[in-house]
Amino acid sequence: MPYIDGFVIAVPTANKQQFIEHARHFDSLFIELGAIRVIEAWGDDVPDGKVTDFRRAVQATAEETVAFSWVEWPDKATRDAGMKKMMEDPRMDPSTPGNPPMPFDGKRMIFGGFEQVVEVKA
């Protein structure tokens, strides 16, 4: 079964294009290191909840949009090896020439790895 890494981020709404450029630059590394698919989604219908919600989870301000992303790996072993290589890759260093700056506050990103337990297809 595939293994999924999920990410929720608050991105300044004005930085949408920079977010897309940042994703295009770095998401190709995930694929290079074994990921099957990377999805970057821009918040469109992200309601405020009564107890908790995506916006509160990342402390999004009124000037920010919540982005939801995931990386699909063929299995956890490929993910673990790929993520290790990614963290060691100089292309991940924001000070490396040619790397786009991070267009959001990475300290407020929430993320985690998930084992797939159900899949329903049309």
Describe the model.
It is a single chain. The protein has helices spanning 16-32, 54-57, 76-88; strands at residues 3-12, 37-42, 64-73, 110-115. By secondary structure, the chain is an alpha+beta fold. The longest helix is centred in the N-terminal third of the chain and has 17 residues, at 16-32. A four-stranded antiparallel β-sheet has the order 2-3-1-4. The protein has three helices and four strands. The two termini are 18 Å apart.
| Structure class | alpha+beta
User: Span from first to last CA?
Assistant: 18 Å
Mean pLDDT: 92
| Topology as a string of helices (H) and strands (E) | EHEHEHE
How many strands? Answer: 4
Strand content: 25-35%
Total DSSP helices: 3
Rg for CA atoms: 15 Å
Query: In percent, how helical is the residue content?
Result: 25-40%
Enumerate the spans where pLDDT stays under 50 for 5 or more consecutive residues: none
Largest sheet: 4 strands, antiparallel
Main sheet: strand order: 2-3-1-4
| Morphology call | globular
